[in-house]
Design a protein that fits this description.
The chain is of the alpha/beta class and 147 residues long. The N and C termini lie far apart (36 Å). It has four helices and five strands, in the order H-E-E-H-E-H-E-E-H. 37% of the residues lie in helices and 18% in strands. Strand 1 (24-29) and strand 2 (32-38) form a beta hairpin.
Length: 147
C-alpha cells in the first residue's frame, strides 16, 4: 500500500512540473501496479485528460479489456463527476483517494454518486487522508495566486 501511495504522489508531482493541477492516479490489480496517470489537460489540450481518465485508458489498453473488474484505483484527489462516471463505466471495484475535493468531489464532498443504490453496479471507496497529497495541491494553487 505504501508503494502505491508513493507512486500516486509521484504522478501528482509529474503533473505539477508540467504546470497541471497536481493529481496522480494508479490502477492496481492483485496488489500490483498496472498503470499510472496524471493530469494532462493543458499539456495535451484535452478537457477530459484527468489523471483518472489517463490511468483508465492505459489500463484498458494494457489489459486489452475495457472492464477493469478486478482493479483498484488510487488517486491523490477525490474524483470529480466525470471521473466517477468513467470509474463506474470501467467497472473498477474500489477507489482510494488521499485528499478531499471540497469544490468538485463526487464521492463524499459535493456529491455521493457511489452511494446511489439506483446504480446497476457497485464501486467501493475509501478515503485515506495523506497530508502530502493536500500539501502538493495547496502549494500549486498558492503559486498560481502568486503569479
Amino acid at each position: 500500500m505504501d508503494l502505491i501511495i508513493k507512486e500516486v504522489l509521484e504522478e501528482a508531482k509529474k503533473a505539477y512540473k508540467k504546470d497541471e493541477v497536481p493529481v496522480g492516479a494508479v490502477i492496481a490489480k492483485n496488489g500490483e501496479i498496472i498503470t499510472k496517470g496524471h493530469n494532462q489537460r493543458i499539456t495535451k489540450n484535452n478537457a477530459i485528460l484527468h489523471a483518472e481518465i489517463d490511468a483508465i485508458q492505459k489500463a484498458s489498453k494494457k489489459l486489452k479489456n475495457w472492464r477493469l473488474d478486478d482493479c483498484e484505483m488510487w488517486v491523490s484527489l477525490e474524483p470529480c463527476l466525470m471521473c466517477v462516471g468513467a470509474i463506474l463505466q470501467s467497472r473498477i471495484k474500489k477507489v482510494y483517494f488521499l485528499a478531499k475535493n471540497e469544490k468538485e468531489g463526487a464521492i463524499i464532498s459535493q456529491y455521493h454518486i457511489l452511494d446511489d443504490n439506483k446504480l446497476p453496479f457497485r464501486v467501493d471507496y475509501e478515503f485515506i487522508p495523506v497530508e502530502e497529497a493536500s500539501i502538493i495541491l495547496k502549494e500549486f494553487f498558492k503559486s498560481k495566486r502568486g503569479k
